[in-house]
Amino acid sequence: MALYRPITMPVTVLVGTQWGDEGKGKVTDYFAEKADVVVRFHGGNNAGHTIVVGSETFKFHIMPSGLLWPGKSAFIGNGVVIDPSVLVEEIQQLESRGHSARNLRISDRAHVILPYHKLLDGAEEKLRTGAKIGTTGRGIGPAYQDKAARSGIRMAEFVDPGQFRARLAENVQSKQRILDAYGLGAKLDAEAIYAEYSRYAEKLAPYVADTSILLERAIHEGKNVLLEGAQGTMLDIDHGTYPYVTSSNCVAGNACAGAGMSPRHINKIYGVVKAYTTRVGEGPLPTEQGNEIGRRLLERGGEYGTTTGRARRCGWLDLVVVNHSCRLNGIDSLVVTKLDVLGGLPKLKVCKSYKLGRDKTGTFPSTMGLLAKCEPVYDELEGWPDMPREEMVALARKGYSALPKEMREYIRYVEKGTGVKVEIASIGPEREATIER
Asked: How many whole angstroms separate alpha carbon 206 and alpha carbon 197?
């Protein structure tokens, strides 16, 4: 008998192609209708997904988006770092609104964010002598540092009172020395931390499992699995705009390591691209519009961070960035979101390449010094009329051919510029405002 049976249903990876905030939460929720299992494979509560279901809006920071569909299994993979206080609150909020978290499972190998991680995060950002990174201050980076330094506490230890107390005492001792060296004056109390966090551990213990085994079982049973990325490719610690990046790998290649599965199982990789460009935090942004266009995109798009509330920097679509992401991730199909936000602009611009000195390049630079010198080279396209949200939803129900000609031309331009088919177009935050081609 063969060890591996043929896969009868797809394993799909969904990643962002820009700096996050592309609308992955909505797209994950849309895909999750056909999925049996949704897996979050990296990041922490520095990422936020906003999902609109009918008249309700949900904001998730750690939990996989698929939990809003009844009967779906949702796994938090080993590649995620978890703030137990935030996760407990998310579970409580979800259940208070009539949705169940009983199908949530948390990897026993996922690392835990503790109070000293948050203190260190703020201290390190404050003490930077150069440009600030723009960290959310949630303790994500220091938690990943501990993971790499092999001093982190994993969920399996966290929910075991004896192991948690012992490991916490060791870490508090060493972290106190670091905080003292930073001159913060903060004093860590291991017993106080244990008293608070052991309550979270007790609430989360029923959800903790070896999710890698559960995922493998689901795949062999022919279940439809969706692997959900958090931030976008340009925030990837290796391939993004380093050092203005997050602390984990955001690319599709990390989906397997962060979920605990073999790469041979993946059938398709989707990339989500916003119809324009945004980012939160510092670093060069070639197509940024510090003018009325940028302000219009900010307000019409509601471009404020789900996690931080910070206003996002906005600009025209940058295909150099999207092509960089398509290559790194091996994108099979694109999902273009927020096309409705561009409605009413008579002319639209799309960056097709950069001008660097006397040369033009379609390759994304590896250093921020070079990126800061890049000037976008634009093509200009015709805009489409502004329409009320109700009209957009009605158009979505009629199908792709009902969209304004100029919007379809814009989508074709993206396809031609990337060589990747746009399989889905989103023209509003609602589930219904989604069109499959």
From this structure: 15
